[in-house]
UniProtKB/TrEMBL annotation:
GO terms for molecular function: peptidase activity. GO terms for biological process: proteolysis. Belongs to the peptidase U32 family. The lineage of its organism: Bacteria, Pseudomonadati, Campylobacterota, Epsilonproteobacteria, Campylobacterales. InterPro entries: Peptidase_U32 (IPR001539), RNA/ubiquinone_mod_enzymes (IPR051454). Pfam families: Peptidase_U32. This is Putative protease. It comes from Campylobacter geochelonis. Keywords: Hydrolase, Protease. Its EC number is 3.4.-.-. PANTHER family: PEPTIDASE U32 FAMILY (PTHR30217), TRNA HYDROXYLATION PROTEIN P (PTHR30217:SF6).
């Protein structure tokens, strides 16, 4: 069984650092207007993007740049300049969705690998072979593809890498080819500015052409989230997928999601991959960790089961629900924390840190760090800033940095079960 790459989202420089700290083998990010996530692309400028590439390479990891939008003619010259910039930054690969942009990339930056975006909808070995011949070293498979089909593609095109999504938001439309946002909001999903109209609640009506009578169809009092897909979660299937030796990279969706999401999802799938390699795979462990994230309900999508076998991949009653845990604070440097929710005195909070981190037990005038029931916990006797300002409790919105009782790993989170 070969070890599969873990690919995590980097919506900005901080999330990139978190992904690397929490065990990602590679990250993907975008800059400018040529990605399907323009909101996250705007969080990078040339300086921070360059720094992200450098940091990634210093850690011996890989950096993939997304250029997977569907451009109009007026954007072609801009894409040429963008590819030239990515060439100079020496990214490891470009994720591209269209044959034309692939051809540009091969012409301008032939030394940079091309990964074919999931937007290209590869479902079979014929299409995979054609794109491989055009220069793609990897395909990001369509989410609708089955594991059996992935195995067949690897058999027929053995030198082509296959990347699959294992976690994150699912689109109601086939492989993300949706026009609802463009029709309702004037925001084009396949140019990176989807308004997520499928996540809204709708009221449904039936009209009789005979007499014009209009009837409201009620799912519940607030309408129905009829197009709201559940979130993909393949955490419990990682070992089974790895045993096929057909998949080369596991991709986590979520460049616009929270810092905690990047940390927790990366950590969970890092554990799953490493445990599978060590022969000690424990599905309940990864399921518990991933359930701590806010989600729309989870589904294992279509890789493992056929579409007609699915009971439900839609969350009809609610757009989003809380995870099992609430994040209360984050510490970027391990010395002070910033509040995300609320921190009270003499209250235990779980410490979430990168795998294999050394957490020192300590008790002093500021607080104590200790282990209990397999968890690392922290309690505060004092909430004080470096300048000596004290608080009896501290809430989100308070920008003061509060001293920790002991040095913790970089990008540590404090959380509490809801």
């Amino acid at each position: 069984m070969k070890k599969v790459e873990l690919l995590s989202p980097a919506g900005n420089l901080t999330k990139l650092k978190i992904a690397l700290e929490y065990g990602a083998d590679a990250v993907y990010a975008s800059m400018g207007n040529f990605s399907l996530r323009q909101r996250s692309a705007k969080e990078f400028d040339l300086e921070s993007f360059s720094e992200g590439v450098k940091l990634t390479h210093e850690k011996g990891k890989k950096f993939y740049a997304t250029v997977n939008g569907f451009p109009f003619n007026m954007q072609i010259e801009g894409i040429k300049k963008h590819i030239q910039t990515l060439k100079e930054l020496e990214v490891d690969a470009m994720i591209i969705a269209t044959p034309g942009v692939m051809a540009l990339a091969k012409e301008i930056a032939p030394q940079i690998e091309i990964h074919l975006s999931t937007q290209a909808n590869v479902m079979n070995y014929l299409d995979a072979k054609i794109y491989h011949q055009m220069g793609a070293s990897r395909i990001v498979a369509a989410r609708e593809m089955s594991l059996k089909d992935a195995i067949k593609i690897k058999e027929m095109v053995p030198n082509l890498e296959i990347e699959i999504f294992v976690h994150g938001s699912m689109c109601f439309a086939y492989s993300g080819r949706c026009l609802v946002s463009a029709v309702q909001s004037g925001r084009f999903s396949n140019r990176g500015s989807c308004a997520n109209d499928c996540r809204f609640n709708y009221e449904l009506y039936a009209k009789s052409p005979e007499n014009g009578a209009l009837f409201r169809l009620e799912e519940n009092e607030g309408g129905t989230y009829i197009m709201n897909s559940k979130d993909l979660n393949l955490g419990t299937h990682i070992e089974k997928i790895m045993q096929t030796d057909a998949i080369d990279s596991f991709k986590i969706e979520g460049r616009t999601k929270s810092e905690y999401y990047v940390a927790c999802a990366t950590r969970a799938y890092r554990m799953a991959i490493d445990d599978a390699m060590a022969g000690k795979f424990d599905p309940s462990k990864y399921e518990k960790e991933l359930n701590s994230l806010a989600n729309r309900g989870f589904t294992d999508g279509y890789l493992i089961h056929k579409p007609y076998e699915r009971k439900s991949t839609q969350s009809l009653d609610i757009q989003m629900e809380d995870g099992t845990h609430q994040v209360h604070a984050i510490s970027e440097d391990g010395e002070v924390f910033k509040t995300k929710h609320r921190i009270d005195l003499n209250t235990p909070y779980e410490i979430v840190a990168p795998l294999n981190s050394q957490i020192c037990e300590v008790e002093n005038e500021i607080g104590r760090v200790y282990s209990q029931n397999g968890l690392n916990l922290i309690e505060f006797k004092k909430l004080t800033t470096k300048t000596g300002k004290e608080f009896s409790d501290i809430h989100s919105g308070n920008l003061n940095e509060i001293i920790l009782p002991v040095k913790l790993p970089n990008f540590t989170f404090l959380r509490k079960e809801i």
